[in-house]
Design goal:
With about 375 residues, this protein is an alpha/beta fold. Helix content is about 35%, strand content about 15%.
């Protein structure tokens, strides 16, 4: 168990210190609070399991119990004193708290790095922007929807991070260049590029229009190229940079009725591997992440199309997609985001030209 003396509780929490720092952890935490205990106690999920003080907990989601002498609500990983001075009975749960914390993003690992996330207004992009901000980065949230990027940027700021919302169309070289220039004026040069903007439509190949084909390649492949071209010169000049492109398992195997999307994502992997070799000796790494079906709005749109074209129910369509993952579920956006944060860190300095699957082993290694 991780403990602190009761006499430190008031002073520590009154100063609003980060909860993880106060407990001596190196991770951001979200906890559930129990009242009427004599000291702060972080208990592991099994009574026989213990971690030493100042430990680095394993990655993933872990359930813990934390107790204080009086209630303290949790807000984005920081503890603030409760306005209510009464005491809870033993075992009472304060309803404002979250029962899980993620021990996957060490505090400050990307402090002051400038991260540019395309397609940052929803889904994987939103989760990625929040994850990088939680790791200390200055995060640019870029997408075509002003409402979406402003909403995500507001989430980052509310959580104590720094964010810049930018409207950017990745299919336009001038729009990308303008967004990168604005980033430089506001935060400085881009240290980490996350190519996440994506677009997909499904149809038999003979019914794919020129417009659908061109738009799919423009968003998924040309957009990745344009963003790479815009940020690489500065990265190479400074001998420091990370590029992470969100591809798909469609980049490795073919899915029926998504020919344009599969072609574009295969192209993203080829582009990743080529550019990785070009800049390997220049302090820049270039990698891709290949998620399976992720629980996002884009997947919900795919489910709706399945319903329209097959007559199956939404639950049946969702179950079909879940069954493609041997784990029997959809991937969470934050799972992809956490891998992106790791690839952007110093620990991944020797990793480049790689494609990482986040798919529950839907795609077996060749």
């Amino acid at each position: 168990m991780l403990r602190h003396r009761p006499d430190l509780l008031e002073d520590g929490f009154d100063r609003g210190v980060p909860f993880a720092q106060f407990l001596g952890l190196r991770q951001e935490v979200r906890v559930e609070i129990l009242g009427d205990l004599e000291e702060a106690v972080l208990r592991p999920p099994r009574r026989r399991t213990q971690w030493p003080q100042d430990t680095a907990l394993p990655q993933g989601s872990h359930r813990f119990r934390v107790g204080f002498r009086r209630p303290h609500p949790v807000d984005f990983g920081r503890i603030q004193p409760s306005a209510r001075r009464g005491r809870s009975g033993p075992g009472d749960i304060i309803p404002t708290c979250h029962g899980l914390f993620r021990a996957s993003r060490p505090l400050g690992v990307l402090t002051d790095r400038v991260v540019f996330v395309t397609g940052g207004g929803r889904g994987i992009g939103r989760a990625t922007a929040l994850a990088f901000a939680a790791a200390g980065a200055r995060t640019v949230v870029a997408a075509r929807s002003v409402d979406q990027v402003e909403a995500v940027a507001a989430e980052v700021v509310q959580a104590g991070g720094r964010a810049l919302p930018l409207v950017c169309d990745v299919t336009s070289g001038s729009s990308v260049a303008s967004a990168v220039e604005e980033t430089g004026r506001h935060f400085g040069p881009v240290d980490v590029l996350v190519n996440n903007a994506g677009y997909v439509e499904s149809a038999p190949l003979t019914r794919v229009t020129d417009e659908t084909w061109n738009r799919t390649l423009a968003v998924n492949l040309t957009g990745t190229f344009l963003c790479l071209r815009a940020v690489l010169p500065s990265m190479v000049e400074r001998q420091r940079g990370r590029v992470i492109s969100i591809a798909s398992t469609a980049a490795e195997i073919g899915y029926a009725y998504t020919a344009a999307y599969c072609a574009a994502k295969h192209g993203v992997l080829g582009l990743t591997r080529s550019v990785a070799l070009e800049v390997a000796a220049k302090g820049v790494t270039v990698n891709a992440i290949c998620p399976g079906w992720v629980d996002t709005g884009m997947t919900e749109e795919s489910i709706a199309r399945i319903v329209r074209t097959t007559g199956r129910s939404a639950d049946e369509a969702r179950a079909t997609l879940e069954a493609m993952n041997p784990q029997g579920r959809l991937i969470r956006s934050d799972e992809v985001a956490d891998l992106a944060v790791w690839l952007a860190g110093d620990a991944a300095a020797g990793v480049t030209g790689q494609a990482y699957n986040v798919d529950g082993r839907e795609v077996a290694p060749s």
